[in-house]
TrEMBL record:
Molecular function GO terms recorded: metal ion binding; methyltransferase activity
Native source species: Knoellia locipacati
The protein's required cofactors: Zn(2+)
The keyword Chloroplast is assigned to this record: no
Identification of the protein by name: Homocysteine S-methyltransferase
Amino acid sequence: MTPATWEPGAGPRWVTDGGLETDVIFNHGVVLPHFAAYPLLDSLEGRALLTDYYAGYAAVANQAGASLLLETPTWRASPDWVATVGGPATDVHRVALESVVFLAALGESLLASGALPAGRHDYGSFRVSGTIGPRGDGYVAGEPAPSDEFAAYHSHQVAAFAESGAGRVAAYTLTTVSEAVGVVRAARGHRLDVAVSFTVETDGRLPDGTTLAEAVDNLWGQAAPDELLVNCAHPSHVAMALADDDTWASRVTGLRVNASRQSHAELDAAEVLDAGDIDDLVREHDSLAARLPNLDVVGGCCGTDVRHVAALWGVDA
């Protein structure tokens, strides 16, 4: 929960990472089956890559005077996706546990080395958060289903994150209110803080056509999360959803944006990485952030790497 010493509107506190999967695939030449990054945990080489990856964002946090949100590489580690990748059902539990242990140890190592100074903030120099992805594709609206069905589905990952000691879970690239409600209910069942993040198309609407304003209002009417983010869209796309009198904007606590202005369909079909224009990204992000009074978490999504996130925080990569 938000510490009493932090006043909303005081500016973001948490640096998080960028587009892990696109960075690994396009910048490091590593094949990720079905866009799943969690298999990197199963090799020394993969863990070394992840260590270097997260260390880059620790350097950003250090320069920015912020804390580091270490989010597990488990966006594609829910039951259906584990089966698609070809692993046993038990991998859902195993991967969630191993990812939290790995990042907790990494955070402590960063502290010990001075990469993250201890005692900077009363809410800690780093926090480990369990990452959840959508049951479906994430770029298109998922199959309609009741929220209780989504709650049962996501409870597999949530339970493992709770067992691991992670106090927070965050579900990214959600395309429907029903799934967001299900994630919140699953997290509440395991007494975890929960963040949900919708994605939007170029018109500022969710992939199922729901306006962002409607989605936020409906979510709060059924199962309010602790944090609300928007991810996997260029800041200009998110800004399309805003009007001068939108009270829902005050509920947004985080942004993980794309560098590219392309649509989800264009990105899905792309064979080369669109890393966008960093100067344009910063301008649009700053303009959007000025309209989100409670922004607390800033990172990137598809097409971004440590250079983009550093620029968003106004520091060197």
